[in-house]
Amino acid sequence: MRSAATPATRAPSALQPAAEERAASVDTPPVIVIHPATPLSAARLALARDLRLAFRKRGQLVQPLAFFALVTLLFPLAVSPEMARLRDIAPGVLWVAALLASLLALEFLFRDDAHDGTLEQYAISGQSLISLVFAKIVAHWLLTGVPLALMAPLAGLSLGVPVAALPGVILSVAVGTIALSLIGSIGAALTLGVKRSGALLALLTLPLSLPVLIFGARATQLAITAGPLLAPLELLAALAVLGATLAPIAAAAALRISLE
Amino acid sequence: MTWTWFHRLASPPYVYALAARLTPWFAWPAGLLIAAGLWGGLVLAPPDYQQGDGFRIIYVHAPSAWMSLMVYTTMALAAAVGLIWRIKVAHAVAASCAPVGASFTFAALVTGALWGEPMWGTYWEWDPRLTSELILLFLYLGYMGLRSALEDATRADRASALLAVVGVVNVPIIHYSVTWWNSLHQAPSVMRLSKPAMPASMLVPLMMMLLGFTLFFAAVLLVRLRGEVLTRERSASWVREALSA
Question: Which pTM was predicted?
Answer without folding.
Answer: 0.86
